[in-house]
Amino acid sequence: MSKKFANVIVNPAAGAGKTGKLWPRIMYSFQQLGLNFEHVITEAPGHAIELAKTAAKKGYDLVVSVGGDGTIHEIVNGLYASGKLKDNLLGIVETGTGSDYIRTTGGSHSYEDACRLFLKPKARTVDVGIVEYCKNGGTETRLFVNFAGMGIDSEIVRRTTQQYKKLGDMPSYLLGALTSLLTYHNHKLSITIDGETREANILTLIMNNGKYGGGGMCTGPYADLQDGFLDVMVAHDLSKLEFLWSLPRLYKGTHLTHRKVDSGRAREVIVKPLDGKLFVQADGELLGEVPASFKIMPAALNIVV
């Protein structure tokens, strides 16, 4: 089969439905630029994984994500599952709510500018993270482009996606965050970072590949997509009041100087629970539970810049 240029995967639900409304204009931009492309529309959560697998196997040169960070997350995992992650270029037209990945890559928030990049696409090779976690009595694996972790962040994701999702993006997030603040308690973990084990009572533990996550929080201010490391951030036994007081610092990226926050770089992090169930999230997607391990995959993904 001869290679086709671009397969465009569109998630109309991304950005609280904004993507579906924008897609006709984005498609017109592709057509006006004379780009050779075909497009497919996602129908449910997880569908972009299967669509990306199919695109890779059909031999497209370029797979384009039209949606948010969750859409990128699924497409990257679909390309990985196909065994052709490094054989494809990933293009991004960001129309989601958080836009965390392009904050790190320096991508454009303008769909017109993003589309123009595909005329003469240039590749930047970046790292991705990989997490192995527990689910339904077994072990599963997932890639992440931005960040992954556990603690109050994964609890907010769980409540947002499982309990309040039908309310819409912002109301569900606000209710999920409020409920988590009222009910969450810190957890004791065994954390092994590049072979060195310690125990810690944590509010949250984040493995950063990119700088941003959670809709603009600068969780990894020194993270670098090309350095071959995860930037690990441990927020120890903060009270909820301390957490709320520190939120502005988290958005500014100045939280690492807090006396109860540790940070460092790692190639592998292994986490075991010491006091009960704890959920794992990656790129804002709820995956499963700890025990879990996190590794870096250096120079694993080619993105259009």
Task: Tell me the layout of helices and strands.
Layout: E1 4-10, H1 18-33, E2 37-41, H2 47-58, E3 60-67, H3 69-81, E4 89-94, H4 100-105, H5 111-116, E5 123-135, E6 138-144, E7 147-151, H6 152-162, H7 169-183, E8 187-193, E9 196-202, E10 204-208, E11 230-235, H8 240-252, E12 261-266, E13 268-273, E14 279-282, E15 285-304
Parallel strand pairs: 1-2, 1-3, 3-4, 4-15
Antiparallel strand pairs: 5-6, 5-15, 7-10, 7-14, 8-9, 8-13, 10-11, 11-12, 13-15, 14-15
Helix pairs in contact: 2-3, 6-7
Description:
With 305 residues, the protein is α+β, with helices and mostly antiparallel strands. It has two domains: 118 residues, Rossmann fold, CATH 3.40.50.10330; 170 residues, Tumour Suppressor Smad4, CATH 2.60.200.40. Helix content is 30%, strand content 37%. It is built from eight helices and 15 strands. The chain has a 15-stranded mixed β-sheet that branches. The protein is globular, with a radius of gyration of 19 Å. The relative contact order is 0.16.
